Amino acid sequence: MAKAKTIHECSECGATYGKWQGQCRNCGEWNTITEVTPSAGTKTLTVLSPGKSAKPITEVDSRLSTRRKTGVGELDRVLGGGFVPGAVVLLTGEPGIGKSTLLLDVSAKVAAKASAPVLYVTGEESASQVRLRAERIGALHDNLLLAAETNLAAVLGHIEENRPSLLIVDSVQTLAHPEVEGSAGGVAQVRAVASLLIAEAKSRSLPVILVGHVTKDGTVAGPRVLEHLVDVVAHFEGDRHARLRLLRAIKNRYGATDEVGCFEMSDLGIVGLEDPSGLFLESADASIPGTCVTVTLEGRRPLATQVQSLIASAPAGAPRRTTIGVDRSRVSMILAVLEARQGLAIAGRDVYVSTVGGAKTSEPAADLAVALSLSSAATNLALKDSLVAFGEIGLTGEVRATPAIARRLAEAERLGFKRAIVPQAAADEARGVKNLQVTLVRTLAEALQAAFNPSEK
């Protein structure tokens, strides 16, 4: 008898190889390649008569896909206005970041206003453990059903019995298809489980949220086909030691991918932040040397962020360069420009640059605020007035334009800032600002002059 053909497949990314090897060349993981027997494909396919005839697109009723609000405004913002019936959302994030807490809150809010129940399937915790978290965050409702299951057949049975208005699976890597070989979380299992749940969602117009694990480098664990099958891929991120959490849509078939939802982690759960700029401003009006405020963009959302710098004498040896929340390479470049173009003696001193409130920014628009903050710390002179600055700095000391200047200025004006230093190239966008004194600069030298001597033009 002919020996069955086998292949070797990576359990992390699904890449296949002709023979076993220690490391997967696709994802770089070690000892994840196992031997599998591919299912034999059929050579012929019987043509069937369609159950429903194709119809002109103009006759398709779009009201069947009307969005449904989740009750959490920041989640609705990322989804594009709410759940689309039959849509499947994959929510990813690091362990402990707050995915389950957020979804439990969403479940309770949807259950409170939906006629059909919400089904929350947990494969990682017991029902009593989920109940404890629900009590802590106030997410208890009789219309919210809990099921601790790891068997996909049992989950499908719960769906058939309860006909929920929303299904949440926490997580997709814990479910197992009883007729598919391999352990739960493997490539074959994740592919089979996701395919059946997606088919169920489409046939019932049932919104489904799947929680997905991430690997060490932050990518979705399991086969990459999982991201292609679902309609929305959202990533929940943030520093677990800070209060801020950000929800980004990496893929969205029904909306934009440049919206960002902001949440605050507290003892009572996760709360949406319609105005998160307050988390990033600490004594912004005080005359403290080494501080400057900029306006960064998270997707389309402008956020005011305070940059703080400290320059201290260095002990014997190489001086330290420590950054938190800002791009270390850009800070090094700005230090070189300040020393070479402005004669600021920083080379032999320790430099510390940080943002306030756990904010993170790597865009070049924060360059000017970082430069002003470093100059203020080096000279021990506070910046004058309530000042905000943004612009990219080049190696020659010029201040370059950044995108969305008008949106940044509008946010600064809304927060009550009095003065703004922006690139000269943004003159057209700055004309519409009424309650903000805008100073246009071409070089870093002009920006420093305007920041420390506002009366001098």
From TrEMBL:
* Pfam families per UniProt: AAA_25 (PF13481), ChlI (PF13541), Zn_ribbon_LapB (PF18073)
GO molecular function term, any single one:
hydrolase activity
Q: Which residues form the RecA family profile domain?
A: 64-214
Alphabetized PANTHER family for the sequence: DNA REPAIR PROTEIN RADA (PTHR32472), DNA REPAIR PROTEIN RADA-LIKE PROTEIN (PTHR32472:SF10)
Gene Ontology annotations of biological process type: recombinational repair
Question: Where is it found, in Gene Ontology cellular component terms?
Answer: cytosol
Q: Which InterPro entries match?
A: AAA+_ATPase, DNA_repair_RadA, P-loop_NTPase, RecA_ATP-bd, Ribosomal_Su5_D2-typ_SF, Ribsml_uS5_D2-typ_fold_subgr, Rubredoxin_2
Domains: what does the record tell us? The middle region has homology to RecA with ATPase motifs including the RadA KNRFG motif, while the C-terminus is homologous to Lon protease.
Q: Residues of the signal sequence?
A: none
Per the UniProt record, the lineage of the source organism begins with:
Bacteria, Bacillati, Actinomycetota, Actinomycetes, Actinomycetales
Motif (RadA KNRFG motif) spans which residues?
251-255
Q: Which family does it belong to?
A: Belongs to the RecA family. RadA subfamily.
Residues bound to ATP are: 93-100
Record has DNA damage as a keyword: yes
Q: Which CDD domains match?
A: RadA_SMS_N (cd01121)
Specify whether DNA-binding is a keyword of the entry: yes
Q: Can you say what this protein is called?
A: DNA repair protein RadA
Q: Where is this region: Lon-protease-like?
A: 350-457
